[in-house]
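Look at a sample.

——
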Amino acid sequence: MASKNARRKKWNSDLGKIASKSAILQKKSGIIKKKYYKFFLHKSRVVNSSYNIIGDHEAQEAEGGEVDLHQFYNDCKKNPGHIQFIPVEKFTLKHLPEGLQDPCLYKLIKASADMTVRVSVTMTSPDRPQFWAGTTQPYPFCNLKNEPQLRTGSGRIWNVNKMKDGEVQDGYYHSSYTKCWCQKCQDSDCPSNVWWEFSVHTACHVVFDVTEASHTKLRLFFDSDASPLVIVDKFEFLYSSKDYDICALNCVTCDKALGEKLMKIYKCHLDIWEEILFNPSYSRDKHKMAFIVSHPHGCPKQISIGQWKDKILIHDRTKFTYSTTTCPGSSGATVHCVGYSGTAWRSEFVHSGTKSGLNYSGVGQVFSKSK
């Protein structure tokens, strides 16, 4: 227990350093003028196209809206029958590969599933580029600028914080607000002084910029068609990088039941992730296990398990290829390469696309195990 507390104390200290560095850089540049600064923004550098992989994106387009999604699922040509996907509610220890049927790993996947969200966007920004950087490959949805057509992807919650009067009560970061800023509170004369903020990672080609973020909705806990409708639709656009294919949103709720549930799930994930990270039996390069929780075709979330194949270094970051099954609607889902999955409080590896029978992630940072 002592070593666990020491490691968590170090992580909290590292987070504080990142936040402080972010504040200094942003104050100097004049980018953002707020009381608190929460994120070390990614430096978006053009990726050398000879190292990059550009295939087909896997956002689900739905010109007819939500009513078409189940039909896309039934008519899927990439994975007819979706036999390699496991519905979250049916996932058991026996679905894990032989030699990795461990309760801790099972709990990690279930916790990751709890934090997975469906991302729905109903507007395409006029500022989307025509091509991927350094190529003549069309950028996703560049032909739909200003069009209100639905597309769906996936994302994952991280960094849950409870706020009161602008001060953090539980979590790591302060808020730039002193009252809840959800839509209900903005329309009220008595906004709540207690609220929760949490972040969501998805792919940049799913939510490109602030214009698209303002037309985005998240559906949480969409485990089956019978799941209750839990929607979050108020965000701050934090950052995106089209070169790394990553986007981050800051979300808000003052719903006490929802906020407490998210905090409980997030803390559970932190504890389990720590057990996996420092367990020598989960070798990075021996098992090469990679799992994804996503919303194929915008339908209820599913788990897929496979292996990562290639680890491609791009500058000081990494891109993975993997056999783990995906479908349209999986774009933006977190790719968990066990032993390489970023950090406990966030994961930058999101599903980006598919090419020549292999799937590939966006570009992210690998977390180094402490000695």
Remarks:
- The longest helix spans residues 2-29.
